[in-house]
Amino acid sequence: MYRIIKKEILNPTVIKMQVKAPLIAKKAEPGQFIILRVKEEGERIPLTIADFDRANGTVTIIFQVVGASTLQLAALEEGDAISDFVGPLGVPSHVEGLKKVAVIGGGVGSAIAYPIAKKLHYLGAEVHSVVGFRNKELVILEDEFKTVSDILAVMTDDGSYGTKGLVTDTLKQLIESGEKYDEVIAIGPLIMMKYVAALTKGYGIKTMVSMNPVMIDGTGMCGGCRLTVDGKTKFACVDGPDFDGHLVDFEEALARSTMYKQFERSAYDATCNLFKKEVR
Ligand code: FES
After folding, report:
1. Mean pLDDT of 79-106
2. Which of ligand 1's atoms lies nearest the C-alpha of 220?
3. With 90 as the cut, is the pLDDT of residue 180 above it?
4. What does the alpha-carbon distance between residue 179 and residue 173 come to, in Å, rounded to a whole number?
């Protein structure tokens, strides 16, 4: 069992948890992920490691309540335990040697972008972070990004905070103003990563994206997380989750991402009703 040491509500649907998992904390690197099960018979949830503390033996996860399993996870409190917590899985993000990088985060994807920005900053790179959210209420990790970024732009779709517009608007401005990036790292909704990659392709800037498809075993056995990169089949769990954004087949990934929406909705509704009954 893995104890929840700290729980923090970052916005109405995004929650941060620090989980005691010393063996994972010892080996974790930015870009890697864990798979957890809230209860023994529960669904497996893959979550990218948002931070880790080797000295205290904790791993931080940040997740959005999007379905039944994340709703169950969100219901846990400090002191409660998670049944299974496995990792670190996946290939760490390659950030060594980069001198100047634009880190782009979209929504809860910013939670995955943050440890990468932090590591780049630690390694001495110049970090320009551009993070986008639907509105002010959904903005997360602004202070954390500030401490590791040479430039930070917070964008909102509706202009209720920061600059109104899309992350690609500001990224384009930065590139057009003469900023020369070794690499752009984009993490967020598929559609955002698709448009970031399309933008940077035109400027010939290498762009890495973090893919987060449905995962089951997390070890390359089930094929659930497959995607096409440069015409070849890859598995996000063992070959990624980071891939060259200019080579990812985003159309296929977008189509696959909607396959389980209806099923997920029904499970979510059933879980909501369950919680309502328990509360009564
Ligand atoms: Fe099964 Fe990746 S999760 S192959």
Report:
1. 93
2. 4
3. yes
4. 9
